[in-house]
Amino acid sequence: MNVTNVTKNRQKKAFLESLEKGVSIKEACDYAGVSRMTIWRWRKKYLGFNNKVLLIIDSRTQTVEDALYMNAVNGNITAQIFWLKNRAKERWSDRFEHSEELKGEITITDARQKILSRINSIAIRKRKNRNNQQSK
Predict the structure, then answer these.
(1) Which CATH number fits domain 3-92: 3.30.379, 1.10.10, 1.10.3470, 1.10.8?
(2) b vs e for 10-32, b when ≥16 Cβ sit within 10 Å of the residue's Cβ?
(3) pLDDT below 50 — which residues of the chain?
């Protein structure tokens, strides 16, 4: 093993140790004496190194998830809403998606006509209601 590989291995180890302690990727790079681009190149080139970085990042995510959960359980309404919307989407989503198989052809003109007809019928109904109230 040549000097370059020894140095590289030390830098990788320093980066990973620093990252495990909770610093940012930039701070871990600074501590190891390497650039972010070097880290990205190493992650692409060395699968084992990339897997270690991913494990550290995943561990951080799990720590934040645990903290979010504890905040939710302890009554933080924002944390409760966030947790439910992301963990039980099918029951707590603000949006409901609906899909339907269309038979035949629908053109923009058809859809536009339907919308305009609906708007017109609402306007006519409101006008009739207003006229009825005024005549009373």
Answers:
(1) 1.10.10
(2) ebbebbbebbeeeeebeebbebb
(3) none
